[in-house]
Structures are given as structure tokens and as C-alpha cells.
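Comment thread on ticket #2218

A.B. wrote:
> Attaching the input chain for the structure job we discussed in standup.
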Amino acid sequence: MRVGEFAIHADSNEISGPVGTVRLRPLIMQVLLRLVAARGAAVTREQLIDDVWSRKIVNDEVLSRAIAELRIALGDDSKVPRYIETLPKVGYRLVATVTRPATGQSGDESGAVPPISNEKGIPPAAVAVRRWPMFLTVAGALLASAAIYFWLAPGAAPAARDWVTQINAAAAFASDPAAELAPRFAPDGQSVIYVRRSAERSEVVIHETQTGERRVVVSDTGIITSPIFFPAGKRIAYWRRSAGGDEIVEHDLAGNTRRTLLDSAQHPLGRFDLAPDGSRLVFASQAKAEFPSALKVLDLGNGRVAALTQPQPGEGNDVLPRFSPDGARIAFFRGSESHQRVWIIESFPPYAAKAATGVEGLSYGLAWMGRDGPLVVAADWHGFRALNQLDLVSGETRLLGARGARHPDVGRDGDIVFESATYRADLWLTGAAEPGAKRQALWQSTRYTNQAEFSPDGKRVVFISNRDGAEGIFVGTLGADARRLPLPAGFRYIRPHWSPDGRHILAVRIAVTDSRPAQQQAVRIEVESGRHEVLTRAGDSVNAVHELAGGDLLIGEIVGYAMRLVRIAAGGSEQKRLALPLVSEFALTGNALVYTLPQLTGATGCELDTLRCTPLKIDLNDDNRFDWTLAKDAIWYLGPDPAGQRALLRHDLATGRTDHHDFAPSGAGTSLAASPDGKQLIVVQEAPPVIDLMLARKNKK
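C.D. wrote:
> Ran it. Output below, let me know if you need it in another format.
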């Protein structure tokens, strides 16, 4: 674009004008682009600080210096401004004319289509500035912003629809024994493309919704997912994994030819999206193991890849991006595996990203229901995986239904397609000497069970299961039945741990509510009676709680997507932060404390009473953050064997030796437990999921 006499090159942080080309600091370019996005409207100092310095504490002096630096680059005078006008006690306003030159011709999918523009040439993502309500962090969220601003495309919101009735009337249209995955509508809404995957092959199938006719258009021995049509419906793109690495492929349906759009050098993850005009492709990429995955955009006209987001270590991964119907914005998830939030980012510079809601949880894809929303989101926001509606204006959510739904898509006529996936996971008891040689299923169900822990005497087990609806806490005696602890409804319960005397369970409860932030409180539950008390002295941002031998509490207090370890005196409220860094996970056995760090590989072992710590050379990181447990003499964890296959590993704390076994955990959440004497293990393993594809047609009056 051009601002007055200057051409703005946001990708290289340069401006070109009468005196040549000047390179700006990236932060100064962001200030300029934020002023451009306001279309001549005033931008308050608070807005600039929130939007440009969103992860730091910044004072007015820093902003004033940045504005002065920008004025120097533009050759502007604050007393007689031609570019940036100071509005006393308010902020700043861009007074120069902004124009965007035409970049291509509209037409079929092969051409580069310029963004829709208004009379001043500003992309629609920057046309209207709407103030959003404040959402505080919940369940480990990172940011608490004073206000959230989005630049939304103009136009009225879609008419109210009875989405609940429509979704509840969904019917299966594909129920093959093979897994059927990643459904997406064709541009005309008359067919659905999806993947049918078996152990040997992946097939890309096109299903005609009116006639039921199906045809296989791709058959491959590699792993394929995320098939999507280009706008004219003559080509598709999909993600493929083979021995050569991961890639995103374009496939011509008529000629049955293909070419690589992104190769393994870009590290594309499985879920990506195409802009509605077919000119750009957004994907998640994790170039370095120690950093989160970030979003990037591929320009299909010139082949250039630009960074869209840059989450910092500890913020979690950016994944599952989806373009809005006008291509102006991208919705995606940011966070750790179990604490992901929906974010919205402009798809054009300055790429301003903000959280759309404070609601967090396990997330399984989303789709736009209209140009300005709402979104249909597959997540466990109400205690179980289902479809939910997220209003982008108010940030409010509501449960739509379709329990078990994943990866929804909305067609041009309002039809909805999604995966219906049934997961099952069970606890398996096995000997620690030869894991898997002999095994016994514990308290099986057709639902999901995990987060197990042996009692101090090794005779009982506490675990979490959704077999009776939302997650609940169960206690079972080995060789006998298990029973659910009678706890109040309206809460989810996670991370149960035994008290040292075995009489109580310490756990975290999370309020199931649309009010944000939701409280995460520590509770102590008497096992025999089920009576419970809320440990209010631990606060409302607890992610884990243990009771120590003397009655003190050790809590993991939420700080972003990490935890601060705090010790609370028995029976009182005096708190003492442990002199340790923020941790991603931690485990206790007696006086032994082991913790891991966000986005780093390894672990640290400490003596709890003295806090003398020693680094441990062990492959624990964010990928297996829940797949490990501390025994009295070893750490058991999920990792690769010498051949690179998933295995159960044992790291001996005395010798440093690591052995591997074939009986690997495969469950989500905490998936391993060791008995106090170290002789028995509980391993969580998933059964193969049952996945069908569902079609919910728009209600026709």
C-alpha cells in the first residue's frame, strides 16, 4: 500500500519515499500499520499499547519514543503534521492518504485475486473497528487484556438460525469400517470431500450429497488428511505424509496430476485451509521442536511464505486455521493440548491477533457460520466433546449438540458436516518388571478413562472417567468395583491425587459456565463419605494440588500455560512460592519432586525440603507432557524405542539408564501411574476410535 508519498513494504519492514528506502524496526512498522488500519480515525494511546505491545508492560514514554521514531522516518513534523497527528489526551491519527494499488484480475481460480477494498483501498479486515468485551484468562490462558479489538468486514450478521434443531437432525452418510476423516464441502455445496483411511491406504473420496454417489479420486499408501477444493472445483489440495516427509499437494482432478505446494522443509502440520478465492494457503508449522507451532501463509501466485503468528515459548501452539468466508480473517486455536482458546487474526498486515473468548479446553476444529461469524466449534467446553456456537461480537458460547463431534464444516447453503467420533480408553494393570507381559483391564467402560493414581497403600486407585456423562472422580479397589464420588454438578473434576493418609482425594474443579473467567479451585474430598470442602485459601487459579505429609498444600498456580509452584501452610493461608521456575508439569513421591519446563526437553529432580535440584537427561517435552509418572526409583514415560516406534520407557534415577518396553500408553491426559512400591503400573490405552461422517441439512421452512 501507499501512505502519502511512501510505499509500505510490510513484509520487509521497509518504506520507500522521496529520499529512498528506509528500514523500520518491526515494532515501528506495527505502529504504522495499526494507524493505517484505523482509516483516519483516532487511535488511543491505550489501544496502540494493547495492540502492538500485547505481551509486555509498556508506559507512555515508550510509545512516545516509537511515534517520534516513526515521524523521523516519514519526515513528518509534529507541529505541522502531514502523516501523524497528535490528539492531546487521546492518542494519534493518521492524516495521510492511504491507497492500495491493484494487484491482479479477478476471475477463475488460477489468477491472483486482490482483496476486496473500500474507497480508500484498505482491505476489509481493516474497515470497521469494533470494541470487544474483556475476557480474563481461564484454565491456564495466557493474556488478560484490558480490551480486545478486531477489524471485521462490513455487513450485517447472518439471520438467526435454529442451529440446535438442525444439528440434532444430523444423519450419518458415511459409515465405513475404515476411519472417515476431515469432511469439507465443495464450493457449490453439492458434494463433500473426505479421507477414508485404513492401515494400508488413504483414499480421497468425493460424495454427492443429493444422489449418494461416491468416487475415489486419490488412493495412496501414505497418510492423507485435510482434502479441500479450489474455488472452481477442478482441483483439490491435501496434506500427505510419506517416508519422504510431510507435504501439501495440489491434485488436478481431470488430468489426475499433482504437484507439491509445500514440501517438508516448511514442516506443515496436517490441518490447513485455502482462502475462498484460492490465492493463499494458511497452515501451521513447527520448524523447531523447542518452539510452538506457528501459522504461515503461502501466496500461491508467487510461492512466497510469510509468517502470520509467532507464539512465544509457554503460549502453546497455533493450530487448525480456517479462513473467514470473505478471506479477511483467520480463526485458529492457541494453547496447550488441553487448554486451547479460539483466536482471530487478520489475514492481511498488520496481522493483529486477539483471543475471541476466554473459554478453553480440548479443541477439535471449527468453521465459520457467516462472514462475521458466529463460529461452530468442536470442543469440550461443557464437559464433553460436542459442537458449540461462539458469537464473535459478545464472546458468548452455547452448546449446540452432536456429542462426539469433530472438525465441522459449513456449506454455502448452511448445511453442516462433521465427524462423529467415539473414543474409548481403559486402564490396564501390569507388572513393572515386564510391562505388558501380563495385563489386566480395570473397570472397563465404553467411554474414556484416564488420570489414574494408586493410593498410598497400593490397594486402591483413583481415576477420572466420563462413563456417567461429564467427567467425574471414581475410586476403585483392586479386585473389586469402582464407585463415583458424589460431587456437586456444574463442575468438571481433574487431576485427582491421594492425601498421604489415603483418607482424602485432592483435585481441581472447574466451573462449567459461560461466565469467564471460570474458577479453577482446589477441593479436598473424603473418600468414604464423599463430603468435600473447597480449599479457598488456594485461590481460584489452581491447576494441580497435592497434600504433603505435614498437611501443607503444594499447588500449581496458573501462570499463562505454565504453573507457579506455591506451598501453603497447613490449616492456614500463608503462601510461599518455591524458588523454582515456572513449570509445565510436576510430580511428587515422598520428598522427591520432578518437574518439566514449557517448550524445553528434559526434566529436573529436586529434594522438596531443601530444593536442591539436579537436571535429568530424559526426553520429556510438551509432546509427552502428560505421558509420564514418577515412581520411587524411576521415571516411566512415553518415548521412542531405538527403531523410532512408540514405547514405554523407564529411566532409572540412580543409574541414569533408560530401558524400553513395547507396552506404550496411548491415552490423552495423564496416562501412566506407578504403585508406591514400584512393582505395578497402570497404563492408559485407547481402543481404535469409531468415526462416521454426519450431515445436518439446513432447515427449510
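A.B. wrote:
> Thanks. Noting for the ticket: Residues 172 and 694 are 4 Å apart (CA to CA).
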